Each structure stands twice: as structure tokens, then as C-alpha cells.
Amino acid sequence: MGKNRAKKVKRAWRNISTKEFDDYNEKATRDANSGGSLASAPSDSLFVVDKSTDVPVRRKIEKKREKVLRFESVLQRNPFVKAVPSSILKKLKKKDKTVDLAQDASKDDDKKGPESGKFDIWDDQGKVNIKGKKKANPSLIPAVEVEPPGCSFNPENESHKDSLALAVAEEMKKIYKKELEPEPIPLTVPGEPVTEDDRYFLEVDHEDDDDVDEMDEENQTEDQINEDENRKSKEKRITTVVKNKRIRRKEQQKAEAEAKKIKDLSKEIDSIPDILQEIAKEDEEKKNRHLRRMVAKEERLKSGPPRLGKRKFEPAPSQVLLTEEITGSLRKLKACCTLARDRFKSLEKRGILVPSAKRSRLV
Questions:
Q1: 334 in helix, strand or coil?
Q2: Are the C-beta atoms of residues 142 and 349 closer than 8 Å to each other?
Q3: Is 301 inside any structural domain?
Q4: Do residues 37 and 26 touch, judged by C-beta distance below 8 A?
Q5: Using CA atoms, how far apart are residues 201 and 207, in angstroms rounded to an integer?
Q6: 248-259: buried (b, 16+ CB within 10 Å) or exposed (e) per residue?
Q7: Tens digits of per-residue pLDDT, 77-128?
Q8: Within-domain flag for 185
Q9: 307: in domain
Q10: The pTM is what?
Q11: How far apart are CA 349 and CA 362, in angstroms?
Q12: What's the CA gap between 258 and 250, in Å, rounded?
């Protein structure tokens, strides 16, 4: 009997109703779809205080104006739905945490400092160094430069002549620059050994120079002795009359110097407007000079990049067809790989790449 009862009890477990759990799950899903459970909602959103007695009767227009439209209700923020945090907010929170931790650490160190008598020499006193993003200055040079019309495959006669003249002028400038450059210092200087006769003459000249120097020194000492004797003979006893004359002369010179100073001051005071005009002119010249420098700097940046490495930027020669090479059709054009070179030179000119030297291929 006992065994059969036990079997009946275990079978009866299958008949336990799960209605409560199903109802709870349905309610939870319904609340999640509607925006949240009413139990967790604030009382302000559920209940409204009736103040109709205090408020005067409004017009229909005012009621219609206050009516919330469909798109406005959609755009309103739902208090039950939590916003998805973005990665930027997470980064800002992390930064705030690091700053707070650094400040707390500095406060703890200040509290422990006078008691322990120890301090950290590398401590920045709560300062947090956060690296900012480096913003690159935009280059004045455009990414794609349009060549003159004379460089086309089928140009007009006048434009082709102008571009040819510019190309010839550039080449001639390079040739003249090479010709006018100073000659480099030679690594070795050719020379001949000194013979015995030349060595003898050089030694004799050196001895003559030493004798001349000794004679000059003796003459100088004799002149100094004669000057000292003449000075002693000229020195005489000064009388009181001469002293008074000297004093009177000094006083007169002082008075004249003071009068001259006063006169110069009056002249300077009278010439104040002229001085102001000169200062204004100098200021204008300085401004004009500054403007000229700025314009020259902009032109320099437009023509070439700033110096990045040990080599300067060398612009590519202008791609102009000769009169013999102009055919008037794209099919008969001579094949040349200038696109990659043009892009590479453009990157160098804009200061993105460091200018490199020409490399010749080893065969």
C-alpha cells in the first residue's frame, strides 16, 4: 500500500497548476510593453489635483492650442523607459572617476603628511594630465591642382606657347643657378715639396723679422723716457690766482650746460607734434611690414610645404607636350606613368609626406 501511495503522490506533482507564474509573466511583459508597472510609477503621473474651481473658464482656442499633437506625444520622453547610455557618456564617467580618485588620494596624503613626515616628490597635487586630440592645420594647397590649358593633349596655339615659355624659363633658371653656385671645396690640394734653396731663404727672412721687432721695442722705450722727462719739466707750482680762475671757469661751464639743457627741453616740447607724427608713421610702417610678411608667408605656403626633413621639396616639372608630340587625339598620345608621381608630389607639397631623394634603380 505504501509503495502505491508514493507513486500516486509523484504523479500528482504533474497536475500542479502554473497559472500564477503564467499570470505574473504576462503582467510583466504587458508592463514592459506599456512602459512600466503602475506600482513603480510616480504619483504625479497617475493622479491629478483638480483645480478647476480656481482657474477661470478658457476659450476653445486656448484649449486647442494646449492640446498635445500626435508627433509631440511620440517625441515626449517616457518616464518608464530608460535611455540607452552612449559610449561618450561612459568615457566621461570614467574621466570623472579618475579625477575624483586623484583628488581623494591627494586629500589622504595631505592628512597623513604632517603625521608621517613623508612626501612624494613626483606628486602633481591632484592634477590629472589628459591628452587632448591633436588637430592638424589645414593646408592652403589644394589636393588636386588644375594645370594650365597649354598642358592639354590638344591645346590652343597661344596657350601652348605660354606654357612652353614657362617650362623653358624654369629649366634655364636651374641651369643658371648651377653655373652661379660657388665651387665646392676640394678634398685634396695638390702641392710640391719645399727644396733646400727655398728653405734657406725662408729661414733668413724669419731672422730679419726678429731683428726688426727688437729695434722697434728699443725705440719705444726711449720715447717713453723722453716723454716722462718733458712732463716733469712742465709741471710747475699752481698759484691761488690760477686756482680761482679755474673755479670760475668751471662754474661758468656749469651754468652754460644748464642753460643749454633748458633750451633743448623747450625745443623738444615744441617738437612734440612732430614726434607724434613720426611715431604714427613708424606704426604704419610696422603694420605694413607685418602685412607683407603675412602675405609672403601665405604665398610661400601655397608654393611649397614647410620644412619637414633635411631635404627641401622639389616641384615636378610641368608636363607640356612639344609641338612635334601634339597629335590632337588621345589614341596617339605617348604613354607615361605620371598619375602616381603626381599624387606622390601632391602629398609631399601638402606636407603629409617627408620629401625624399631620387633613387636610381640598380640594373
A1: coil
A2: no
A3: yes
A4: no
A5: 10
A6: eeeeeeeeeeee
A7: 666 666 666 666 667 777 777 766 666 666 555 555 444 556 566 665 555 5
A8: no
A9: yes
A10: 0.39
A11: 28
A12: 12
